[in-house]
Amino acid sequence: MAEVLVFVDHADGAVRKPTLELLTLARRLGDPVAVAVGAGAAATAGVLAEHGAVKVLTHEAAEYADYLVVPKVDALQAAVAAVSPVAVLVSSSAEGKEVAARLALRIGSGVITDAVDVEAGEQGPVATQSVFAAGFTTKSRVSKGVAVITVKPNSAAVEAAAAAGTVEELAVTFSEQATGTKVTARTPRESTGRPELTEAAVVVSGGRGVGGAESFAVIEALADSLGAAVGASRAAVDAGWYPHTAQVGQTGKSVSPQLYIASGVSGAIQHRAGMQTSKTIVAINKDAEAPIFDLVDYGVVGDLFDVVPQLTEEINTR
Ligand code: FAD
Asked: Which positions, given as ranges, span the membrane (predicted)?
């Protein structure tokens, strides 16, 4: 059976959920072979085997320590040469997309980014993308070389499947570029204790209807009751009520959670572009004619300051 490379996203051996989603999708295309690099790479093997990895190629080296991209590209290139896969799947983070693009260039392949689904096709893997502000769904395939595809987090439900997960050391020769860059300073962002927006299973967003920075506490309280990430519309971000890193939409982040709750968001096309592929969409808006109601699974017409606290209280009592 054909082999499919899955690039593992992990923190010191703890595998992140988007990688398990990639393994689930990879099994539709062939036998998943995971590539894990950096400190703790070998420790990822157990969980990867439980999710269908027939083989885990690992490589630990100091070069990976500073979150630099090129050493990872070197490793993936070595894995492609060793395995000759039908596809390489990478998670659609900012880093993942850079790794995928550089890899595709190196190996002379086409790259498809931000796929929301992947399936086997007669002429190779077919990726589904949501494009033009989510107005269209396209299916594409790479017509040259190995298909390099980045997949948005939360695009697939994780399914466990036991496989051998045989660990093999990957031989990597670092390129000149890998050692040509050094991290000179690092400023950690203050942690909110909430999940990362693009990976969260639940996102609670606030828009202009929230009315001010302090009022975002109402949105945060609902998010915390659900273990959710907080998102914001551009109007809320531009007003300085919430950080730019939380912006959802065409010029913000693209999210695809199981549940997206929009409060005081009108549903402009540019906002939809970043959340339309969410599995279940709920909106709370006091205007029954707001465009967001055209796309919701559940809508509540009401003042968010009445509805959201009641919702939070109800969830907290369960
Ligand atoms: P509004 O459109 O003003 O809607 C506020 C909503 O809140 C209204 O529907 C109102 O009925 C409701 N409301 C008010 N008070 C309450 C209350 N008390 N209770 C309940 N409901 C209430 N926007 C993005 O979000 N993300 C992007 O990435 C983005 N990129 C853009 C890129 C370009 C090139 C351009 C031109 C625009 C972009 N925009 C983006 C802006 C976008 O067009 C909208 O202006 C923006 O999404 C509106 O934000 P909003 O829904 O919060 O505000």
From this structure: none
